[in-house]
Amino acid sequence: MALLRLTPLCLLVHLCCFVLFVSSVLGAKARHFEWEIEYMYGAPDCLENVVMGINGQFPGPTIKARAGDTVVVHLTNKLHTEGVVIHWHGIRQLGTPWADGTASISQCAINPGETFVYRFKVDKAGTYFYHGHYGMQRSAGLYGLLIVDVEEGKKELFQYDGEFNLLLSDWWHKGVHEQEVDLSANPMRWIGEPQSLLINGRGQYNCSLAAAHNSKGSGLPGCKFRGNEGCAPNILHVMPNKTYRLRVASTTALASLNLAIGNHKMLMVEADGNYLEPFWVNDFDIYSGESYSVVFRTDQNPANNYWISVGVRGRQPRTPQALAILHYQTTTASKLPTLAPPETPLWNDYARSKSFSNKIRALSGSPTPPRINHRRIFLLNTQNRIDGYTKWAINNVSLTLPPTPYLGAIKHGFSNAFDQKSPPDTYLNTYDIMKPPSNPNSTYGNGVYMLKFNTTIDVILQNANALNANVSEIHPWHLHGHDFWVLGYGEGKFSKKDIGKFNLKNPPLRNTAVIFPYGWTALRFVTDNPGVWAFHCHIEPHLHMGMGVVFAEGVHLVGNIPNEALSCGLTGKMLMSKPHN
Amino acid sequence: MALLRLTPLCLLVHLCCFVLFVSSVLGAKARHFEWEIEYMYGAPDCLENVVMGINGQFPGPTIKARAGDTVVVHLTNKLHTEGVVIHWHGIRQLGTPWADGTASISQCAINPGETFVYRFKVDKAGTYFYHGHYGMQRSAGLYGLLIVDVEEGKKELFQYDGEFNLLLSDWWHKGVHEQEVDLSANPMRWIGEPQSLLINGRGQYNCSLAAAHNSKGSGLPGCKFRGNEGCAPNILHVMPNKTYRLRVASTTALASLNLAIGNHKMLMVEADGNYLEPFWVNDFDIYSGESYSVVFRTDQNPANNYWISVGVRGRQPRTPQALAILHYQTTTASKLPTLAPPETPLWNDYARSKSFSNKIRALSGSPTPPRINHRRIFLLNTQNRIDGYTKWAINNVSLTLPPTPYLGAIKHGFSNAFDQKSPPDTYLNTYDIMKPPSNPNSTYGNGVYMLKFNTTIDVILQNANALNANVSEIHPWHLHGHDFWVLGYGEGKFSKKDIGKFNLKNPPLRNTAVIFPYGWTALRFVTDNPGVWAFHCHIEPHLHMGMGVVFAEGVHLVGNIPNEALSCGLTGKMLMSKPHN
């Protein structure tokens, strides 16, 4: 293409060197942060609302570190009555499973007024983020970016002149406490589509930055800004003919997104902290829980500015695009782009989505999966009812988290802390995934998949029809404590013959992978990280409605769990039952 | 009066016997309750809203017991991310200070998913209630009645043919989480007057049951009910020419109230679980935290029904009266009263309010206060600013509760759990209570008034001007763990000469007493109940903004505090620090 003056080759100058660095102790730092979490007023989409802030900021501060560093976050809960935790999404917590920040799984929620110290190593460069993992506090705005650069003295595999970070989220005007009541009600009240999409916590409700381009007509009036509003658009200031890295992460509660930069092609280079075999795109899909790095060259007319557009895919969009501005510093920042914002591809063009997902391959030289798996777990995703309540279930079990976190419960042998019966490894082979469940009743459960340490596990995520006919939704599944290889995506019900089609050559390593409507996704990982790890749909209301499972591996190898992570439930009782004065 | 065919004498047939019973073990029961707390949808004032419910009920279930019984409530927290406690308002918790249900004071909040067992003796007959005491959960609807009858086989001091209970509250459409953010914001955002007053959790927003009597014009249209709505009015079904006991308790977040029954005089007989020297009223004031029993005779035209009206006093009312119907069963319940509802006295007729308060005397034969006090504590109530935040302060200290509850902290000697310096016993004697504070800056604090065990304490609550000129508000102060004698009310600044005017002959025993604008109120109590006890303004937002103090007495005499009450903060750390596997 004429627009493209850049080849992958000239960007990826270091490709020939091996992509995995051994973390060097030299130069590694402990990076300390003191954070206080509280509710505050903000106006994420220009409409005033209560948001969850960290040190008065929404989104929370961006953590910047280098591979090998130790991040130490002293987190103080300044909420009035609520506990809180923070999950470091994409960080595998090697050796520190109690720092994973998942309430009921890795630790007890931090009580109001108390401080918990998260201390963990960021062993691998990449684009990560953090977020609340208790109730629906992520939806309330408890999130921020965690950027890990390559080690001091090492060079990134690709060169760039500047870097921008975009954290994508979606926003509702209704508070999360009420959303929780809605989702738990009988009949369930669906929270609906978000009012706004946010880029770095900024969106514009009921107005459009691109009103001048409204030929297709959002019908929204233009936004008026003095420029200092917290909801004013993000502006990425660039110089012409330079190369920039754009780090993009999605912490949406619901929306699957697509991002494009007007006139600029992007080279996909990183996903979830792992290098990709680079490929060019005009736009890319990003599901909740995913992150990408792209590089692009500012090779367009430097007298213009360009829109960066983010729109909804996978659900009928009722939310306008979020927009940011790529500003060539050769012109004025306030000059609106002359071209209309890039259109988001049709929401239900799943063929296009799948085509993109299938292009994602690990960079040559990346670790490849073991050839053989030891166990294969099939996880059927269904929408169900329990006593009239609408739930999501996996193999007919809807996850309800217990008051005693699993990590401590298993480590200390509390057999009454959760269902001791393992949830099923598969589902009835007569199940018709194309129809609403013939028996929609499922059960609550909180059993654990006990995985043998240092074995290779395949998970086949199987999508199905929801309760209503002709509905099957997208679910991005996120695994804690691990990256997994995405061996493949398929249509319909997984069958043995699909195993032969697995990509064992260059499957991408990810921590999040989507299942498409009526389709399956095959994942492989090695149980080499002692701990208890959530594996769940990253759509916040779906998790709230039970859409997750729990994996445990090598818990006997876990070191001393800090008491602070054990202070609730049965582990708290145990620790306190020692005689005292 | 012609309407009155009843004398105190004929009601109080047992007045001659001594009013205090020694609790008999014979017949005493343990009364067990299993409660689950969660948010749910309700429509307290016909407008749908989220309320805090117990076992799916709002208000919570009424506990009925007899003096000497042990109440055992197994309280399970089914909230998603919030802790919870329940305070048993008016129950002194003799020997069980850890069951007082005040977060940060008597116990750690109960974590989501966990169960705490409240076990306490209701030693004294009376009209009590219970409510949340964490954040603003009381405002969210976490409350209910606790009715203690005289012991089995004993007779009440007055006779009646039937009994009704009215729990009064006020209701906002804005959720409490947002209210908390409002009150904590800089600048503070006042929550305003309640949208509705509720009687037993029922009110009517934007309509009036008494629309037909709108001569003075609320302007509201009539309410339309099929009759089964949760917000349909309370109807008290009575037979003519009988005597009824009406138990009334107020758990309002803000409103001071006045209650009247059309055409019916009432005889005041009980306040806060203590007998009164009976006196007749046409209406009575009731402040948040107070309870009363009145008796009345159904001696009016039995072909009519009569309004029970509850209206706002002490603040300019912006909330319509709450109404209930006294239904003579000789007519139909749906027949609306022919007379207009009783008017609530002028909100700022404080002379009337004071006159009522001054009529309240202990029933002859009640315990009288010790003649001499050992310590006198002056508590100046002021509105202040701290770093621009609007707060309420006592002797210039605004209470911020610590993460380690005081009871455990003091019992186990944690000197770093709270400010070790005692807050001041008095304030500058040059302070001008008639003007806004000349230095409005106060400090945060969480020190404790350490009271010598078995001594007599006088507290002089001193009201003052708030931040704005010519504003002094009503504050009903509630003491945990005790009843106190109300020795007197006075105008202006308390001075030594006022001591001589104390009523030591028949002061009423209460657990809540109001201070009037620019006035003082003198209380006396004996520190005979080992524990740590909150003493605070019962207006929920005022407490939230720091309007309280903490008293500790004889904590060395407190028995073993259950671990479940100690599982947070420093006591939790201590208990967990014992070696374990």
What would you note in describing this structure?
Two copies of one chain form a homodimer. Chain A has 581 residues and is mainly beta. Chain A has three domains: 30-149, Sandwich (Immunoglobulin-like), CATH 2.60.40; 161-359, Cupredoxins -  blue copper proteins (Immunoglobulin-like, Sandwich); 375-575, Sandwich (Immunoglobulin-like), CATH 2.60.40. Helices cover 7% and strands 35% of the residues of chain A. Chain A has helices spanning 8-11, 176-184, 350-359, 406-411, 540-544, 569-576; strands at 30-42, 49-54, 63-66, 69-77, 86-89, 115-122, 126-132, 143-149, 162-171, 196-199, 235-238, 243-250, 256-261, 266-271, 274-281, 283-286, 291-297, 306-313, 322-328, 375-386, 389-394, 397-399, 443-445, 449-451, 456-462, 475-479, 484-491, 509-510, 512-515, 519-526, 531-537, 548-553. In chain A, the strands form seven sheets. In chain A, strands 10-9-12-17-14-15 form a six-stranded mixed sheet, with no helix packed on it. In chain A, helix 4 (406-411) links the parallel strand 22 (397-399) and strand 23 (443-445). The termini of chain A are far apart. Chains A and B meet through strand 1, helix 2 and helix 6 of A and strand 1, helix 2 and helix 6 of B.
Brief descriptors of the model:
homodimer; 581 residues; mainly beta; Immunoglobulin-like; 3 domains; 6-stranded mixed sheet; 6 helices; 32 strands; disordered N terminus; CuRO_3_AAO (chains A, B)
